[in-house]
Structure formats: structure tokens, C-alpha cells
Amino acid sequence: MKKILLLVVLSILVVACNDKGASNVKLKTEDDKTFYAMGFMLGSNLQRLNLNDHELSTLYKGIVASAKGDKAEVEMQTFQPKIQQMFKTRMEAVSKNQKSTGEKYLADYLKNNPKAKKTESGLVYEVIKEGSGATPKAEDTVEVHYHGTLINGEVFDSSVDRGKKISFPLNRVIKGWTEGLQLVKLGGKVRLVIPSELAYGDAGAPPKIPGGSTLIFEVELFQINPKPEAPKK
């Protein structure tokens, strides 16, 4: 609860852009820029609530009153427990909408891409480049390049953009990766369209991945390092 309150307080101080005082602030000094950067990062937590301008104004009013030492206009003990419930309710609504949009995207993708296949779990995959030789097992460590986007095309993470491959045990990532990478051969490249239940679920991975999001990854497999055999007793 304290963490949620802190995020709200710090975020609203910057993101209440409909307030004239906040929107007219000029970033003149390094301290100004530092506070702005801190507020921008923290403000991303409020994206999950899908707040309108009136709600932002109401939050901002409470912060200003508290900061000035004014008396609260509501009974705080009554409303403090409702904050967490509001977060939960709003996030569930956002997740539901994301899931609905994602389901339509998955259906359209399968319809428009004849080479795409859907597994029993709901993962959709399309081999872009056939590899050769072995496919990894869940316990293996793989070296890959990947490019991850939301279904609207927004990039949320990309080793390709960073210019550096990444290695990881295949059973320590999201379920869609663990399953999907076992469907591509060494040297191959695959596109994975991953429903939220095989990705980050209702919680998402803020600030870049909303709850309930369907994710798209293009992954190229460069190396497979099998799990070392356990020493014989």
C-alpha cells in the first residue's frame, strides 16, 4: 500500500499536465530535468489506470492540499483501503480490453498468414527462416537475437536494436518463449505471436507492456548449449 501511495504522489506531481502550473514549468536547470525524468518514469505507473483529465485534477488537488498542510476533505481512514481496490479494478479493465484486442489480432494473423500455425497452448508461430540441425530443449541455454513489439507495432525491447545477442536458459523466460524456441532449428528465425497468458499476464510488465498484452517477437537462434549432465554417483 505504501509503495502504491508513493508512486501516485510522485507521479501526479509531474503528470497532471492539465494543471496550468505543471504544464507551464520550464526545464531550465539540471535539477529541473532530473525531477522531470524521475516524474516521467514514475508517472508511467498511472498509465495502467487509464485516468481522464478530471481524475488527474482530483488527484493533483489532494497532493497540493496535503503538501500545504491543509485539512483533508475526506475521511482518510475510510478511503485509504479503497486505493488498492481501485488500482486492481482499473488494471483488470485495461487487461480485459488488451486481451480482447489481442484475440482479434491472433485470429486475423492466422487468417492472413497461411504459414502461421497455432499450438494447443494458444501460441501462434511462423518460421521466417528454416534452420538446420538441432532444436533446443527447455533446459538448454540459447543465444539469440530478438525484436519485441506490441500488436500496434510499438517496440518494447530489442537485442537487435542494441546490437548485442543475449543468452539465457530457455526455461527461465516467459512460457511463449520456452515453447516457441523449441519449434525452431539452429540458425533459424521465427515469429512468435504470444497471448498474454503465455507472456506477462494481467499484470503486464510496466511501463512498456500493459496488462493483458499480446506480444510479437522475431527471434533468431544462433547457438544451443545443452544443460550439463549431472555427475554420476
Binned, the helix content reads: 40-55%
Global structural class: alpha+beta
Oligomeric state of the chains present here: single chain
Major pleated sheet: 7 strands, antiparallel
What would your notes on this structure say?
This protein is α+β, with helices and mostly antiparallel strands and 233 residues long. The chain has 2 domains: 2-73, no CATH class; 100-225, Chitinase A, domain 3 (Roll), CATH 3.10.50. The protein is built from 7 helices and 7 strands, in the order αααααββββαβαββ. The protein has helices at 2-15, 20-23, 30-43, 53-67, 76-112, 159-162, 175-180; strands at residues 117-118, 124-129, 141-150, 155-158, 166-169, 189-194, 215-225. Helix 1 packs across helix 3 and helix 1 (2-15) packs across helix 4. The longest helix is centred in the middle third of the chain and has 37 residues, at 76-112.
Keywords:
233 residues, 2 domains, Chitinase A, domain 3, seven-stranded antiparallel beta sheet, alpha+beta
Could you give a short description of this structure?
This protein is α+β, with helices and mostly antiparallel strands and 233 residues long. It contains 7 helices and 7 strands; from the N terminus they run αααααββββαβαββ. Strands 1, 2, 3, 4, 5, 6 and 7 form a 7-stranded antiparallel β-sheet that branches.
